[in-house]
Amino acid sequence: MKTRFPLLTLVLLFALTCMADQKTTSGTIVSMQSVDCGTKKEGKKKTSSLTCQQYLVHTATAEYQIRQKKSEAQEVLQANTQIEFTLDKDKMKFKVNGKKYEFLVVGTSAIGSK
Hints:
The chain is mostly beta strands. The protein is 15% helix and 54% strand. It has a six-stranded antiparallel β-barrel with strand order 1-2-3-6-5-4.
């Protein structure tokens, strides 16, 4: 009975630490550009190139380049859109106008203080 309390405390502490890693960050979608993101086979020998939208998201401390995971899900997001996002490894998750989005983070850079 005495060993259950420290074990339960340890499990609870671990769970709270994991939840703290999922904090939200606010940022702004600054710009969008179309970039080449692969090829698609259209028959035995014919291929066509695929383009994806790549967005630039600014926060107070960093700048992220994000791209949609699937090229067929081509919905254009407006510049100067404020978002609250979470980062999970190489994915950025956020909502815009009640719709959930999940993007791949393809680049990051720090914003230095002036």
